[in-house]
Amino acid sequence: MNKIAFIGAGNMARAIIIGLVNSGITPQDIIVANPSEAKRLNLATEFGVLQTDDNIKASEFADVIVLCVKPHFITDVCFQISQAIDITGKLFISVAAGTTVEQIQSALSKGETTNLAPVVRVMPNTPSQLGLGMSGLFASKEVTVEQKASAEKITNAVGKSIWLDTEDKINNIIAVAGSAPAYYFLFMEAMEQQAKQYGFSEEESRMLVQQTALGAAQMVAHNSAPISELRANVTSKGGTTHAAIERFKADGIEEIVKNAMNAAIARAEEMAK
Ligand SMILES: NC(=O)c1ccc[n+]([C@@H]2O[C@H](COP(=O)([O-])OP(=O)(O)OC[C@H]3O[C@@H](n4cnc5c(N)ncnc54)[C@H](OP(=O)(O)O)[C@@H]3O)[C@@H](O)[C@H]2O)c1
């Protein structure tokens, strides 16, 4: 594996660094750059990675530069790096929602339209913190086979990943995986609230919902049968589960989910403008 620089040492950088170190990457091959001291010092102390407050120094050190700042800082950071050092041969990986490959390459290009920098856009999600992330990756045409392998190694260190053939599918990944942990949380919150209505204590309600969600997710993960079949297997006609499922359907669960996911895509498109 190459040397990797993280520009920004926030939540996403931390999640990926934990995954990389746990997967056996040498910590001294990783450097983090962050303006405020506490986050980068914590990472250095906990995981033995190198740290600096200087984005240029970090970028000089690395073959792979992972941009982990908020989307509105991405182009400034890229411009700053490309003005200061020769970026030839370096791969840029951006985890920012809403910043396109074209915007990143333009900020890195010093006005040139040829020899554009290789850029991979990654859309991860928060379970990456636990090594259970789901990421979508899109590579610009300048990215080499070896660089694609490096990008994939980084995302696979924090979960699973798929390659996308067109950049616009990044927004679809946001709808299906990036924003989706919160959909499950919302559903679990609603169930937890109802469990309390039935007289279960706060602790019992949490345990009932949490363990059931975990069990259901594990059943899906451990069984290659279609999810609809798993559901049918536990839904005897005329039984209690059947009554609940029929109610969900009558109340428009499929439409609700479709509209929510489309709203995430619409917002991602707005943010990209
Ligand atoms: N968290 C997620 O679930 C998630 C999922 C998908 C994608 N993403 C993307 O990941 C990126 C980072 O998100 P996050 O949740 O990790 O945000 P975060 O926790 O706020 O981290 C961003 C970090 O960037 C640092 N920073 C600000 N300006 C900088 C600069 N000029 N140079 C270097 N570092 C700078 C900040 O440092 P200070 O605090 O010192 O200012 C902060 O530590 C975003 O673009 C987001 O769209 C996040």
Automatic annotation (TrEMBL):
SUPFAM superfamilies, sorted: 6-phosphogluconate dehydrogenase C-terminal domain-like, NAD(P)-binding Rossmann-fold domains
**What is catalysed by this protein?**
L-proline + NAD(+) = (S)-1-pyrroline-5-carboxylate + NADH + 2 H(+); L-proline + NADP(+) = (S)-1-pyrroline-5-carboxylate + NADPH + 2 H(+)
* All residue ranges annotated as the Pyrroline-5-carboxylate reductase dimerisation domain in the record: 167-271
One Gene Ontology term of the molecular function aspect: pyrroline-5-carboxylate reductase activity
Give the pathway listed in the UniProt entry for this protein: Amino-acid biosynthesis; L-proline biosynthesis; L-proline from L-glutamate 5-semialdehyde: step 1/1
- Amino acids binding NADPH: 55
Q: Which PROSITE patterns does the record match to this protein?
A: P5CR
The organism's place on the tree of life at top rank: Bacteria
Judged by the first EC level, this protein's enzyme class is oxidoreductase
- The Pyrroline-5-carboxylate reductase catalytic N-terminal domain extends over 3-98
Subcellular localization(s) per the UniProt record: Cytoplasm
Question: Which Pfam family, giving just one, matches this sequence?
Answer: F420_oxidored
Q: What is its EC number?
A: 1.5.1.2
Entry GO terms, CC: cytoplasm
Annotated residues that bind NADP(+) are located at 7-12
**Main localization of the protein described in the UniProt heading:** cytoplasm
- GO process terms (BP): L-proline biosynthetic process
Keyword annotations of the record: Amino-acid biosynthesis, Cytoplasm, NADP, Oxidoreductase, Proline biosynthesis
Q: Which NCBIfam families match?
A: proC
What family does the entry list? Answer: Belongs to the pyrroline-5-carboxylate reductase family.
Q: What does this protein do?
A: Catalyzes the reduction of 1-pyrroline-5-carboxylate (PCA) to L-proline.
> Which HAMAP family does this chain map to?
P5C_reductase (MF_01925)
Protein's UniProt name: Pyrroline-5-carboxylate reductase
Organism whose genome encodes this protein: Colwellia demingiae
